[in-house]
Design goal:
Keywords: Nucleotidyltransferase, Transferase. Pathway: Amino-sugar metabolism; N-acetylneuraminate metabolism. A seven-stranded mixed beta sheet has the order 5-4-1-6-8-7-9, sandwiched between helices. The chain has a six-stranded parallel beta sheet with strand order 14-13-10-15-16-17, sandwiched between helices. Strands 2-3 form a two-stranded antiparallel sheet. The protein is built from 13 helices and 17 strands. With 414 residues, the chain is of the alpha/beta class.
Length: 414
């Protein structure tokens, strides 16, 4: 390198290993967790961190590839040789590096750690790129006393490993111990090529306990779902309290089917659970409005929903914008439930967006939440519950901020 020439910055690539086979949960990596495919949570964090030159998913499965691309990641098709149950992460990473000579540093992020935040990845990138560490891995602090194992048939007593039973620590007096949590492993190429993910000049990065979630078996799923809703990363824009839900009638409130009687009258069916969901939203002060591309003005009164509705809507986005401006709301205060291509722009604009499980592919790609229920079969009620959970998150964040401000004022007054 000549004098005065700027050294090129090392290429840092995020790599998520997500093969199709899983002994515990079939296609675990794209199973919906709080309405988002599992791998989507870490991809969102990696992309929004802004520190990676490229973000990749290494997979052997077509459906996982499709989801990865929907979230904006590039895909490396891994070979059958490194896609076996016996294959190690290191083997898959080394194969990736063999095909991508431009990569200097790999940030191997585990898809099973859905509470990862961009702020964590930014700090780790600095440790590697600015402070010169060769490898950095994630840990979590635990306050657990360990005892030696006594196997069946052994004639001996258990022994304390990290405590004196005669003088047990109080939790607040003991700093605890650091354990790997498997969320991520960053390492430079030369180290990986030698067969190591940890080595050279090493550093750990301590994650907050509430962000340390690892999904191993199916029983962890509902627990992880609650943790994600409480502590997960939902995007760059802060969540706001939803004040308006706009729901597409055909395919969301109904199943999209139209029944025609002998005397040419149309009939549709809906799920009573969805009516309950609409009523619950209203009780929470959230206005619900309905929209449809077709003229369903004759069937709507029979549902007795008491909602403002726009039928024959040739431009749903224009209707949504008119409603938003008329009520005086910001986009973050609007939620939208749609299922068709005509809903895509509305889904992208709304602060909170969802689709039924049977929505078309482009609508699913644009939505922030994918219901487990189909249209006309409880999707509206499910999306309402999702809104309520996120409102709890908004209120919790607001209370935390008030507590911080209050503490600051108390300190300043002393």
């Amino acid at each position: 390198m000549e004098a005065g020439e700027v050294r090129p910055r090392a290429h840092l690539a995020a790599l998520v290993l997500a093969r199709g086979g899983s002994k515990g949960i079939p296609l675990k990596n794209i199973k919906l967790l709080a309405g988002v495919p599992l791998v989507g949570w870490v991809l969102r964090a990696a992309l929004d961190a802004g520190v990676f030159h490229s973000v990749w998913v290494s997979t052997d499965h077509d459906e996982i590839e499709k989801v990865a691309k929907q979230f904006g990641a590039q895909v490396h098709r891994r070979s059958p040789e490194v896609s076996q149950d016996s294959s190690t992460s290191l083997e898959a990473i080394r194969e990736f590096l063999n095909h991508h000579q431009e990569v200097d540093i790999v940030g191997n992020i585990q898809a099973t750690s859905p509470c990862l935040h961009p702020s964590d990845l930014i700090k780790v990138a600095d440790l590697i790129q600015k402070e010169g560490f060769d490898s950095v891995f994630s840990v979590v602090r635990r306050h657990q006393f360990r005892w030696s194992e006594v196997k069946k048939g052994e004639n001996k007593m258990t022994e304390p490993q990290n405590l004196n039973p005669a003088k047990r620590y109080r939790r607040q007096d003991w700093p605890g111990e650091l354990y790997e949590n498997g969320s991520f492993y960053f390492a430079k190429r030369h180290l990986i090529e030698k067969g190591y993910l940890q080595g050279g000049k090493m550093a750990y990065y301590e994650m907050r306990a509430e962000h340390s979630v690892d999904i191993d078996i199916d029983i962890d799923w509902p627990i992880a779902e609650q943790r994600v809703l409480s502590f997960g990363y939902f995007g760059k824009e802060p969540l706001k309290e939803v004040k308006l839900l706009v729901c597409s009638i055909d395919g969301c409130l109904t199943n999209g089917r139209i029944y025609v009687t002998e005397d040419q009258k149309e009939m549709v069916s809906y799920d009573y659970r969805d009516i309950v969901g609409i009523n619950l939203l209203k009780k929470r002060g959230i206005e619900v409005r309905l929209i449809s591309e077709r003229d369903c003005s004759k069937t709507l009164p029979a549902m007795q929903l008491g909602c403002v509705a726009e039928v024959n809507a040739t431009n749903k986005l224009q209707v949504l914008e008119d409603w938003q401006k008329c009520i005086g709301l910001g986009w973050k205060e609007v939620a939208y439930l749609g299922n068709e291509e005509s809903d895509v722009e509305c889904l992208k604009k709304a602060g909170m967006s969802g689709v039924p499980a049977d929505a078309c592919a482009v609508a699913q790609k644009a939505a922030g939440y994918i219901c487990k229920s189909h249209g006309g079969c409880g999707a509206v009620r499910e999306f309402a519950e999702h809104i309520f959970l996120l409102l709890e998150k908004v209120n919790s964040a607001r209370k935390q901020m008030e507590d911080v401000n209050s503490a600051g004022q108390d300190t300043g007054g002393k």
